[in-house]
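Board notes, transcribed. Complex of a protein with 2-O-methyl-1,6-di-O-phosphono-D-mannitol.
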Amino acid sequence: MAQDQVDLERFERTVRSLDGDVPEEPDVEELRRTARALVADGKGILAADESNSTASKRLKAIGVDATPETRRTYRQLLFTAPGLGEHISGVILYDESIRQSTDDGTPFPRVLQDQGVIPGIKTDTGTAALAGHSGEKVTTGLDGQRDRLAEYRQIGARFAKWRAVIQIGDGLPSAACLGANGHAMARYAALCQEAGVVPIVEPEVLMDGDHSMARCEEVTAATLRALYEALAGQDVLLEGTLLKTNMVLPGTDSGEQPSPEEVAEATLRCMRRTVPAAVPGIVFLSGGQSAVDATVRLNAMNTNGPHPWSVSFSYARALQGPALDAWGGDEDRVEDAQRALIHRTRCNGAATTGTYKSEMEDELAAA
Ligand code: 5MM
């Protein structure tokens, strides 16, 4: 049987099994199946888990007043885009949006399931200053995590996300920062698996700064080593997790302009040295890259496979940016915005199998 047919059957089985409460005992096979379904060939994740303040910032940038209702209207546009499930395996929601519904009263998690998409949820609660380490942050949210996970699973979430932010700078990051964030992510991951929810662990080494691409590679490797040591320390089942992280890129003020092939080579070398083969997939964040750069670089990584893990995407800005611009808050441009979103999902879906071509960018204009 062809690999993509196997992936598709596995994916459909996972989407069909989305009803039910927290299991008495975590179903290890379900965790593995969900994790693999999220990185099925040709598919990736739409990150729509912006906190209210970030979502509001994005709406204000296109001249839309930010309220719970405008955030709902915008998320409705995304989640009801026709054909979303063709190249999107999962959508990461936020505490506000997982409780919202479409105009006709259908809860967003149900809308996604009907599109063949697995609902997910961001469960960290943001960052706090790391004590004794000026300029560094630790992600918060472990208090109450067990109860929140039980509720989110009951509402329909089958995977979750927790993001740690790592800043490169003079003497940064510290070992204390990598250790504290790794430990928190491992505790979150163990709680997720206990609740029957696949944890995505997301350490993001920020692009801000004038550091070189080599320095980004070094810091990303140290971050991932600390993370996988912590995950092992908490007995997290790697087969039931996914890694979401940054590509290896130079700082935005460095002046370096690596080719897509150079980014792919450095990123894959870093991942091979640090990410265990038991992890089913690595889904990259876009981190401020342009939408097309994020696609081209992902494609470059997948032209030289196979890799020990699937290599896919979990983009927010690189998927949503063109849709937000096309919409501009105008109800007459909802379909334009949905076409822009679906176009990017198609390009990135192709990039997961190394079959993206630059000519695909003309398809939207021609539509
Ligand atoms: C790094 O941010 C994640 C990926 O987004 P990009 O592809 O735009 O880099 C994203 O999932 C992020 O966690 C959400 O946008 C939420 O961010 P906030 O700051 O609202 O928690």
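The longest helix spans residues 213-233. The mean pLDDT is 95.
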